[in-house]
Inverse folding.
């Protein structure tokens, strides 16, 4: 989820959303936005 990705982004250089792009595109976009700090 987006909150978890945001927490991991503090410690990682890369966050992989994997199949979320195909299975739940809106959720994948929220994850990317959270990592980017938007």
């Amino acid at each position: 989820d987006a909150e978890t990705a945001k927490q991991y982004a503090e410690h990682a250089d890369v966050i992989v959303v994997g199949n979320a792009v195909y299975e739940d595109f809106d959720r994948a976009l929220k994850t990317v936005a959270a990592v980017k700090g938007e």
Remarks:
- The chain has one domain: 2-36.
- The mean pLDDT is 84.
- Helices lie at 2-9, 20-23, 25-36.
